[in-house]
Amino acid sequence: MNISDRRRILGPSNAKLLTFDKSGPVEIEPISSSSVPNSTSMYIENGLICNANGSSYLEVTGSTSEADRTLMLTSVYGPRPSRGAFNAKATLSVQFKEVTLEKIPAGELKELCNFLSNVFNAVINLERYPKSGIDVFLSLIHSSNGSQLYELESIISTCVNGITLALIDAGIEIFDTVSAGIYEKHIVAFVKNGTEIVGFWKGKDSASESEDILSIIEQCKLDYLKNRKAMVEYLVRCNDKEDHLQHEVTKQ
Amino acid sequence: MVLSVTEKLYLHESLVSNPPARPDGRSADQFRPIEIFTDFLPTSNGSSKIVASDGTECIVSAKCKVVDHTLEEDLIEVDVDIAGHRDDSPLVQGTLSVLNRVLLSQIDRGSLRLTKKYSFKLYIDVLVLSSYSHPLTLISFAIYSALNSTLLPTLISSDDDLDVAELPTFHDYDLTKLTIKVPVLFTVAVCGKNVIVDPASSESDVANNGILVTWYDGKVTAPVRTLGLNEDYVSGITPQSLADGLKLIEDIAPKVVKALDS
Amino acid sequence: MSRLEIYSPEGLRVDGRRWNELRRLECSINTHTSASDGSSYLEQGNNKIITLVNGPQEPKLRSQMSIQKATISVAINITRFSKMERSKTSHRNERRVLEMQTALVRTFEKNVQLHLYPRTQIDIQIHVLQQDGGLMGSLINGITLALIDAGIAMYDYISGVSVGLYDTTPLLDLNSVEESSMSSVTLGVVGKSEKLSLLLVEDKIPLDRMESVLAIGIAGSHRIRELMDRELRKHGRKRLSNVSSNN
């Protein structure tokens, strides 16, 4: 018999057992069916990481084949007190990590983080949280795209959508739900129903070289509206379910 | 220089007004005067120094080395050192990554080809002595002029060395000019509905957003992206502003390249 | 490859100088006005060095502050392209560079009137664009010029030069070919005096030859001081005439 076992502290005799909430994770079906050609499907799950203030898990299946998938886990910590000098507004930091295989060069990741923090600097109400820091951690679980080793475009848009969902889950004030749309290697992060751009990324040259920039943005906007709809629908459904559960609890 | 909240607000208002009133009286599509010196480092194949009117200074050296291009994948390597910034700071790493990618993807490998087996590899070292605004534009101008003044040794052995194992031999003193097209990067600041080119540090501090535009071979190419110039005033821009920014570069880039060539 | 003749029987060195001749020395001050409080650009032979002085200014860290006097910090940046062959590593934290920095701080601590600037810091930043032997001496000259440009009070000039010993002949102001083939010392001489504020001996030198080595080194340093002084006076006159013509 183990010696440490005998020394086990059992706690006071009048201790009560912990009871856990019976509600399981909120399930949601993939939003768009794969029967529609040239469309991506998204699976969303919020609040998977318990010790983060907010988190989101995103599974995006590509438009061309089932094999193109991007799996991303986003966690948000904060607003938490920052040390050092007084800051009138919160400071945002974004960090990206590839959990499984490290395929993306380090410099490119730094660029990506710079880009994302610039996007979210514009939409988080940072004045609301003085003397604090908001830390966003992105973990790329899986990304595959047929011929290429990785596809930065779909990763970036997943990052933008993931961070927005995680920020909402954390209850951090944002001016609007940001979401990204892709069209031919162009990624545009929109707010305000597609009238304003908070981020634009064109990493590689595409076939649509001669196309007008405004029409490209218009195409991205369509993708944005679709993505945003999926995200908002999920959030509303979660909310309804929670309300429902709350209702049940109060009835008991 | 650190500006107070009121000063920034005043500056922002004046940049948003129509037409934009820039603190140094420039028009929206006007650059600050720059001075470029080339070929001052005898131990480098090409060198250039660029000084902007605000004291931003950048020195670029291009050195070459003969490598086996079947083994060496990248024929260009860029290194950036910005005084006052650590090597692992986001600014240095971001600049480095953008430059490496732009130069590697745009510059034609064939122009560095020496024989069927060997090529020149270019090492481009960038030293920014002092920078006040986003240094990317100046760095790219400096790289442009350094590479356009680069002289490489002239090959005198045969260029077909697949069958005969022979190392390339060079002429004792004759040099050949390197002829490659080099991409140029521009930063544009968006303030309200206005787009201004070559933002000074005070203008960057109050800009709503920045756009990085690459110009290569007479047209705008990738990467094009938004770029954070500050943390206080950053906000969304309209699609029209983005299009305006690209239009602005399309208008002025040929003139800039012409000026750099002369 | 045939061995280079370092010192020919006729008394000529690889670059055609005699044993007691300096390399070309050109300098200018106030070259980087917006980047620093004092700056200099120095070409000594094929050494090309930019020196920037910032200060006296408030130290970034409270812990670096001294109540009695100013503190000096020296940062040497030897660029990767400074030699013929590009170096694979940056020289930032190399032991040799760190030692040079400490030696320079100690040299100038004794010569700058630090007690005049209590609670401040003087930052010296050096960029070596090209090097060709005798680097330490050139660094000293560059710093002296930049400190003068910054208007920081010093007791006197410090001028530096390296001297090698080839068999029994001392050779003044070595270039990199000579430096790699013989033992050498670097001197820092205070003004027109024969006082040394730095003596750097990294190789073996016979003690009985030391005196002749030092003698030519001191003479060379005095000459360098003269050249720097002439340039500074020229610069001063130019600025004075600009001021008076504006009035």
Automatic annotation (TrEMBL), chain A:
Residues 42-173 form the Exoribonuclease phosphorolytic domain. One of its GO terms (molecular function) is RNA binding. InterPro entries: ExoRNase_PH_dom1, PNPase/RNase_PH_dom_sf, Ribosomal_Su5_D2-typ_SF, RNase_PH. GO terms for cellular component: cytoplasmic exosome (RNase complex); nuclear exosome (RNase complex); nucleolus. One of its GO terms (biological process) is rRNA catabolic process. Pfam families: RNase_PH. The keyword Membrane does not apply. Keywords: Cytoplasm, Exosome, Nucleus, RNA-binding, rRNA processing. It is found in: Cytoplasm; Nucleus. The keyword Cytoplasm applies. Belongs to the RNase PH family. This is LADA_0C09362g1_1. It comes from Lachancea dasiensis.
From TrEMBL, chain B:
The keyword Cytoplasm applies. The lineage of its organism: Eukaryota, Fungi, Dikarya, Ascomycota, Saccharomycotina. GO terms for molecular function: mRNA 3'-UTR AU-rich region binding. Keywords: Cytoplasm, Exosome. Its main location: cytoplasm. One of its GO terms (cellular component) is nucleolus. It comes from the Eukaryota. Belongs to the RNase PH family. GO terms for biological process: exonucleolytic trimming to generate mature 3'-end of 5.8S rRNA from tricistronic rRNA transcript (SSU-rRNA, 5.8S rRNA, LSU-rRNA); nuclear mRNA surveillance; nuclear polyadenylation-dependent rRNA catabolic process; rRNA catabolic process; TRAMP-dependent tRNA surveillance pathway; U1 snRNA 3'-end processing; U4 snRNA 3'-end processing; U5 snRNA 3'-end processing. This is Ribosomal RNA-processing protein 42. It is found in: Cytoplasm; Nucleus, Nucleolus. PANTHER family: EXOSOME COMPLEX COMPONENT RRP42, EXOSOME COMPLEX EXONUCLEASE RIBOSOMAL RNA PROCESSING PROTEIN. InterPro entries: ExoRNase_PH_dom1, ExoRNase_PH_dom2_sf, Exosome_comp_Rrp42_subfam, PNPase/RNase_PH_dom_sf, Ribosomal_Su5_D2-typ_SF. Residues 30-153 form the Exoribonuclease phosphorolytic domain. It comes from Lachancea dasiensis.
UniProtKB/TrEMBL annotation, chain C:
Pfam families: RNase_PH, RNase_PH_C. Residues 21-152, 156-219 form the Exoribonuclease phosphorolytic domain. One of its GO terms (molecular function) is RNA binding. InterPro entries: ExoRNase_PH_dom1, ExoRNase_PH_dom2, ExoRNase_PH_dom2_sf, PNPase/RNase_PH_dom_sf, Ribosomal_Su5_D2-typ_SF, RNase_PH. It comes from the Eukaryota. It is found in: Cytoplasm; Nucleus, Nucleolus. One of its GO terms (biological process) is nuclear-transcribed mRNA catabolic process, 3'-5' exonucleolytic nonsense-mediated decay. Keywords: Cytoplasm, Exosome. GO terms for cellular component: chromatin; cytoplasmic exosome (RNase complex); nuclear exosome (RNase complex); nucleolus. Component of the RNA exosome complex. Specifically part of the catalytically inactive RNA exosome core complex (Exo-9) which may associate with the catalytic subunits RRP6 and DIS3 in cytoplasmic- and nuclear-specific RNA exosome complex forms. Exo-9 is formed by a hexameric base ring of RNase PH domain-containing subunits and a cap ring consisting of CSL4, RRP4 and RRP40. Belongs to the RNase PH family. This is Ribosomal RNA-processing protein 41. It comes from Lachancea dasiensis.
